[in-house]
């Protein structure tokens, strides 16, 4: 657990936060942050996620000390659907429309 303790302190100092400031953002006591940094305790999962967000690091970096080699794109660019992609995704709508139009045309020309 010493890796986590050193990571918390390292990333807290990189963000120029005191233990008190970090504790205030997490709604906990300064002593809790001190325990984490000394390796005497660990946060629960909810606090761990909030801590990673505040320190602007991934959970892997914070807990394991591993810098992720790949980044996840938050908003990948959407590409337009080609005709075949559209048909593959919405074939049932096209068939339903053809059926409705065919039924309507047969009723129209019967009477």
UniProtKB/TrEMBL annotation:
It holds the Pfam family HTH_3. CDD domains: HTH_XRE. Residues 8-62 form the HTH cro/C1-type domain. One of its GO terms (molecular function) is DNA binding. The chain crosses the membrane at residues 90-109. Keywords: DNA-binding, Membrane, Transmembrane, Transmembrane helix. InterPro entries: Cro/C1-type_HTH, Lambda_DNA-bd_dom_sf. PANTHER family: DNA-BIDING PHAGE PROTEIN (PTHR46558:SF4), TRACRIPTIONAL REGULATORY PROTEIN-RELATED-RELATED (PTHR46558). This is Helix-turn-helix domain-containing protein.
């Amino acid at each position: 657990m010493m890796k986590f303790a050193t990571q918390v302190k390292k990333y807290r100092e990189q963000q120029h936060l005191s233990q008190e400031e970090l504790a205030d953002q997490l709604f906990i006591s300064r002593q809790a942050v001190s325990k984490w940094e000394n390796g005497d305790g660990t946060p629960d999962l909810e606090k761990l996620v909030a801590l990673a967000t505040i320190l602007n690091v991934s959970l892997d970096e914070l807990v394991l000390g591993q810098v992720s080699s790949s980044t996840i794109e938050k908003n990948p660019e959407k590409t337009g659907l080609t005709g075949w992609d559209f048909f593959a995704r919405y074939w049932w709508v096209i068939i339903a429309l053809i059926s409705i139009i065919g039924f309507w045309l047969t009723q129209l020309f019967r009477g």
